[in-house]
Write a structure and sequence with these properties.
The protein has 750 residues and is of the alpha+beta class. 33% of the residues lie in helices and 14% in strands. The chain has 25 helices and 23 strands. The strands form six sheets. Strands 1-4-3-2-5-8-7-6 form an eight-stranded mixed sheet. The radius of gyration is 29 Å and the shape is globular.
Length: 750
């Protein structure tokens, strides 16, 4: 008989009642549980729980009974708003979670100040918002007309998963974009397309083709974002197409090898033909992972929609992690937070970083009215203008048209080429360091962003000057001999000299840390540091830029604020005590993996944007000596990139020198923004000289702000010696592997 009872119990468990997907997510979030915690308790993968909450899959026994039990107990603690639940399902969800009846949903009136087209939609029902996660659309008769609703999980997130501003309806600031900057378009099993917006809003999508989808987006979806600068342009709406959406609109789910190398589908594809017939245009990069579809602007009115296609590798996993695999609502959240804090993505993180510079400093502005009352386009002061400028010959990368007359296999040395790059330096450990137990890595937060902060850069073309007097306030490139700078005796403060062991320090003047041997080209911050260390300089020649400004300040501030706000959402705040900061950083990504993706993307936006300032040819049939596409941009400015890298490297060296002068400790390895020291303990606090909670002035300071440092990783000294012995490389850069101890050549995207 007991076997029969067990069979009956199993049968009942297989049909355990579950609330709708949106309610599952609300209940979890209301109790402060993460997806990982639920997955761990039920012994399933994180993606499995995510699928249950998105309505993509349903749990099976034995997990179903346990999941239903969990949700039932949570429902007792956090009863649902039955009116709201009726709107979600069009029926009384109270059958499972409440005894109160659910009244029929009522159509909401359109505000009297709404645009005429919004009023028209009360009858046409072209755009119908629905709460995210609802896998079964309610009956058409019970749908609200133009009510903007968010999922209850959005409104009840716990403190540990503080909802980002992206979830706030954009209508508070600009009614034109009341549904936010972007939407993820997906199609359910019944063939109905939905647009998942930020804040949990879901819109019905009536479009059956890409041209009609573009029309719907521009006329009805109310997507986009206001400009970041007065003379700038509003951000175009962004649509992210899932694999199901690609199938619906006649696009391939994945690109062929040939298409992937070309970065686009062929011009003869049926979807492109549909766009041509509808008189839509594509940019020169064609229909690829980040397609831009537009019609020429009519006056100030723009008609442009951007597409993002994750399955075509639009979201590089090195920077966006597993974002492309997230369910639509969660992907909308990730991209929405990024869009609200940085800007609506315009392509890769590198492209977006560069576009952010232009958005904050548009090249032109409207002039004052002339005698006839008309305004004209004029140069916007503080911008790079609308026309590209030639770089100096020393700033030109190999293959640039300025170098076309050089012999074919000529290799330029330091006296011909500006070579400002990040550190990649290491040295053998001393006997005393080998007696210590650990190698501890510290990493500078947003190092290159901090290097851009307050930096004066050139805005116009360079001027060639012979035998100039060095001016630290004048941006440019200087040919000067710095081989006489002796690191064994340097200034570490006003009229304060320090004696150091120069053999244990990298030179501040070369990326490999080698002492320069003669005249070489340097950016202004590098030469200024030689003067700061107490040595005279006598430049031989220079290319300087008299028109200058702090072009990157707004860019830095925007990215800094995005980084700090997202880290605060993850429980890491500015001005924390050192020990509290280290504890908060431990496992911060697991607190909200979606926001951790945003942090990664923000950091990649900094590095990628600066890299784009000296973008090299990307195929295009290019040959050395010929111009390439990037040279036509006013933002192709290798001198600005060099100045930022120079200042970042100098900032790091200054801290290393201060630390050595005060503690007698020297770095074992330096890679870009990571420094490794030998220490007896495993924590940065075991070698950083804090006194009464205060760091060494001018030295390393723990904290989340850009320019401060965090713990990168700790390995044993024995590990370091074994790795170097294994690879027969006494100067193998251990900073490259200090994070997890795995020696690999995997591309991290940096």
């Amino acid at each position: 008989m007991s076997e029969l009872f067990d069979a009956v119990d199993a049968l009942v468990a297989s049909r355990s009642a579950l609330p709708p997907p949106a309610e599952r997510k609300r209940l979890r979030a209301a109790h402060g549980l993460t997806i990982d915690e639920v997955a761990g308790a039920l012994k399933v993968r994180r993606a499995t729980v995510s699928g249950w909450e998105a309505g993509k899959t349903e749990p099976r026994p034995p997990e179903r009974e346990a999941y239903a039990r969990l949700l039932g107990k949570l429902a007792e603690l956090y009863p649902a708003d039955t009116n709201a639940m009726a709107l979600v399902e069009g029926t009384a969800v109270a059958e499972t979670f409440s005894s109160a009846p659910a009244p029929a949903p009522q159509a909401q009136p359109v505000p009297t100040d709404a645009a005429p087209e919004a009023a028209a939609m009360t009858t046409e029902q072209n755009t119908q918002p629905r709460p995210a996660g609802d896998s079964v659309p309610p009956a058409a008769a019970s749908r609200p007309a133009r009510t903007t609703r968010t999922t209850s999980s959005t409104s009840r997130r716990p403190a540990a998963r503080k909802e980002a501003p992206a979830a706030t309806p954009a209508s508070e600031s600009d009614p034109r974009f009341e549904n936010g900057p972007l939407a993820v378009v997906d199609v359910d099993a019944d063939g109905q397309a939905y647009a998942y917006c930020v804040g949990g809003l879901v819109l019905d999508v009536p479009a059956k083709s890409i041209p009609s989808l573009v029309d719907w987006t521009l006329k009805e979806a109310k997507l986009g974002a206001p400009r970041l600068s007065g003379p700038g342009k509003d951000a175009d709406p962004l649509l992210v197409l899932t694999e199901a959406a690609l199938k619906r609109f006649g696009l391939p789910v994945a690109l062929t090898e040939e298409e992937r190398h070309a970065g686009r589908i062929p011009e003869g594809h049926k979807v492109i033909k549909q766009l041509v017939r509808a008189e839509w245009k594509l940019t020169k990069r064609g229909f690829g992972p980040w397609a831009r579809i537009y019609r020429p602007a009519q006056g100030s009115e723009r008609a442009c929609v951007q597409l993002c296609i994750p399955s075509w590798n639009a979201l590089d996993t090195r920077h966006w992690g597993e974002a492309g695999q997230l369910p639509p609502a969660e992907l909308a959240r990730v991209l929405g937070v990024y869009a609200s804090r940085v800007m609506t993505p315009r392509g890769s993180t590198a492209v977006t970083g560069l576009e952010l510079m232009t958005a904050l400093h548009p090249p032109t502005r409207a002039s004052e009215p002339d005698a006839d009352g008309r305004r004209h386009s004029e140069h916007n002061p503080g911008s790079l203008g609308k026309d590209p400028v030639d770089c100096a010959p020393c700033e030109a990368p190999d293959g640039h048209p300025l170098l076309a007359d050089l012999p074919r296999f000529h290799v330029r040395g330091p006296g011909e080429k500006l070579f400002e790059e990040a550190y990649d330096w290491a040295r053998p450990m001393t006997d005393a360091e080998c007696m210590l137990r650990h190698l501890v890595g510290i990493d500078v937060n947003m190092a290159f962003a901090a290097g851009a902060n307050g930096l004066v850069v050139g805005l116009g073309a360079p001027t060639h000057v012979k035998a100039p007097v060095f001016d630290a306030k004048l941006p440019g490139s200087w040919l000067v001999d710095l081989s006489h700078v002796d690191l064994s005796r340097v200034k570490v403060g006003k009229d304060k000299w320090a004696a150091l062991d120069a053999s244990l320090l990298p030179s501040p003047f070369t990326p490999k840390g080698e002492q320069p041997e003669g005249p070489a080209w340097y950016a202004t911050p590098t030469v200024a540091y030689a003067v700061e260390l107490g040595y005279d300089v006598a430049p031989i020649e220079a290319y300087v830029r008299y028109e200058s400004g702090r072009y990157l300040d707004g860019w830095y501030n925007r990215l800094r604020d995005a980084y700090l706000a997202t880290m605060a959402d993850l429980g890491v705040h500015a001005d924390m005590e050192p020990a509290d900061f280290l504890a908060a950083m431990d496992g911060y990504k697991e607190r909200d993996p979606e926001l951790a993706i945003v942090v990664s993307a923000v950091k990649a936006t900094v590095k990628g944007g600066l890299g784009k300032l000296r973008e090299r040819p990307r195929g295009e049939g290019w040959r050395p000596g010929e111009p390439w596409r990037a040279l036509s941009r006013p933002t192709w400015r290798p001198d600005i990139r060099a100045a930022v890298i120079s200042r970042t490297r100098i900032n790091l060296h200054r801290k290393i020198v201060k630390h050595a002068a005060f503690t007698g400790q020297y770095p074992v390895a330096v890679l870009s923004d990571c420094v490794v020291y030998a220490a007896d303990g495993t924590s940065p606090l075991d070698f950083l000289p804090y006194r009464d909670g205060k760091p060494l002035p001018g030295g390393f300071k723990l904290g989340i702000n850009p320019g401060l440092v965090k713990h990168e990783g700790t390995q044993s000294v024995l590990w370091g010696e074994e790795v170097r012995e294994q690879f027969n490389a006494p100067q193998l850069n251990l900073a490259r592997y200090i994070k997890d101890g795995q020696v690999t050549d995997k591309d991290s995207g940096e």
